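User: For a benchmark we're assembling, each entry needs the component sequences followed by a predicted structure for the full assembly. Here are entry 17's components. Please fill in the structure.
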Amino acid sequence: MVSQHGIKFAVHIITKHFGNLVAKVCECLLRRGALTLQNIVRYTELTPTQVKNSLLVLIQHNCVQAFILEEPGGFGDTLRLITQYVVLFDNILHRLRFSKFLALVSLHFDKPCLDLLEGLLQHGRLSLQQMFDRARETEGSNVTLSTVQENLHKLVTARYVERCPIPEPVLEPPSENDVAARKRAAKSKIIVEAETLEQRVVAASFPSDTLRFSVAVNPELNIDCATEHAGEKRKFDALESDIDGGATTEKIILWRANCEEFVRQLRNKACIENVRARLDDDAATVFSAMVEASGSEEKKIKVVNSAPLSVNAIYEEVIKSEKGRNMTFNHVRASLVQLSSQPRFVRVADETYSIDFKNIVELAQNDEVESVVLKRYGRTAYKIFRLLSKDGRLVETDKDLSTPLTQDRVMKISDSIFVEKKESANMLYKLWQDGYLLMERLVAGATQFLLWKVDKQKVWWHFLDEMFHGALNLSLRVAYEIDQRDEILKLREGASKEKRDRLVKVRMLMESSLMKLDDAIMLFHDF
Amino acid sequence: MVFTFHIPATRMNRSLGPPGPKRKRPESSSQSDSLTEQERILYEVIRSKQDMGIWTRDMKRETNLQDSVVNKSLKVLVAKNLIKEVVNIKNKGKKFYMAAEFQPSKEITGGAWYAEGQLDTALISFLKDFSAKQIQKQRVLTLDVISDLIRRSGVLKVDLAEQQIKDILRALVLDDEIIEVLSTGTGEFASFPVGKVCYKCTSKGARGGEPKTGAFSSVPCGVCPRILLCTPEGVISPKTCVYYNKWLEF
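Assistant: Structure for entry 17:
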């Protein structure tokens, strides 16, 4: 489920990159969920060709994935197969992060690899031949197909590039258990992180992990299983088969950038920087060695903690890095003690250490929200918010109801933060109005009590929506400033240097702020 | 979303709580004997509220006496030292009365940190400063050690209860100046038993007391009080935003 401003931001990105028509189709899918081609045509009121072409663009750039839903048909046991299209919200946001992805790759790879990846990011999906043609255009005719292939293999081995997913995976209808579970969740009004349709489609669209990163030119493997599916489907649905592009029919392997790996690397980087800010450089060195050592084990982004490592394994990794070379074994042990005491970055069990990703991400999320509360509402609000968010349960304005009879343990919001009661009451109300607190009213006889709580799931969701709103605003304002600049330049050839310099500064400030804000969005949305 | 619960009124009855420290009942039987019927009814109502006291309007409702009678009777009772007027921290404008033998409860006075209805900010900030500096100096400290340090410094004339020092430390935790940790028994915790609650400075303390500025709070929208009213083409929009104009002044 994507929040309102998340949708608006995604539509803005698509409009900026591909124009209004494509954006209209994209918005329709974002707002209504998976749809068939006919339904998209109906809802958008565009012509079928316009919709088809827009979908092709979105599929080419990995923003939409087609899938086939099996539904029980009307006659006997035959299954009806319906092709539907689902938008991949995450991949739309990743479009903003291409410069970050390229920066990551530039750390370990040379320019030809970087160019190759840039081509993939720019064009969405490319075949080896297309990559070769591109390389010849930029580097001249002395580039051979085998060098391009070699570069591609390097990137695939590092998991930065992968094969494209199956064009139209078949999705089985949800089992009865799933339906029952969803009903229960809906009843209890809890936002459950159940697997969304988007996630199910993505999972089904990937061939096995080995095939996904297989670079073998072995003709057996070369037959992309994708094409088989596409062929099968064609028998049922001749009309829509045009959508999945001509390339697959020729059994050519298409490649694309693997955003998941990039985001995972960005998460690691963010965690290391967090450790550095809270502890010191030595702890960060040890921590980053742990990240390196456990890197080959885990492949997902949202993990609770890494695989356990022994001290020896960590030390072995530490001394590989330049900074770690002057650390002794005892140094590393001391840093591990530091990392495993509160606030905890590393878990210890039976002399082995594993990274507590969940806790690190949560700490960073808390910092981000608290910083906004402090700057927007002031210190009193900051204290109230921290009090309630640490407590994690309902607290009465004046009195803790769980201990109504023992006055020694009476906890009052205003007393805990040492501010006048009236001030804290006003602030509680303001925070509640803006969606940062949850209020519950409790009536006991003639008296009414107000209870307050920071419901992290709801507040974080609201906060993420505000960040999408902020990112959208930044992006709109950048566009506005550029328009202004163009107008000034049109009006006067020699517009004053001062004005031009200002615009350069403005653009730099806003674009770098947008990139930083995007880091924070990733912290809440992806990590 | 607002939920409404109903819980039995008896649970909420504040008079169930232990009464405040009782003074010896004044041996003034002669005084209370000389009360009129109405004065006696009023006195009994006030006394039944113990250390919580009662608001004048509530008295009128409970006793069903006329305003003028209540006001007159109150004057008589105060003159005879049977009741006293108290300041209620929650409603400083409302007149509260309490039987003379009771000390106002914490609910009325606001607790240990209030002096004459005002928050004692000078004392609080002194204690916060003192505790934070001690923790910064010695890296890790426990509640007992901090209490001891405050007592031995001799700057306070009165002794603080343990709960009060806990209050101060909790306030420092909420300010993100210190954190509460459990001793691991190794490293910097070597001198404390495993599992003992300790306090140590946060990295923010080293940054000079200001928390790290987040990414969202460094752009105008992050600190904007009107973000909920902002739309691309609305009255408040990113193109016309005054906060943006200010931010982009070079």
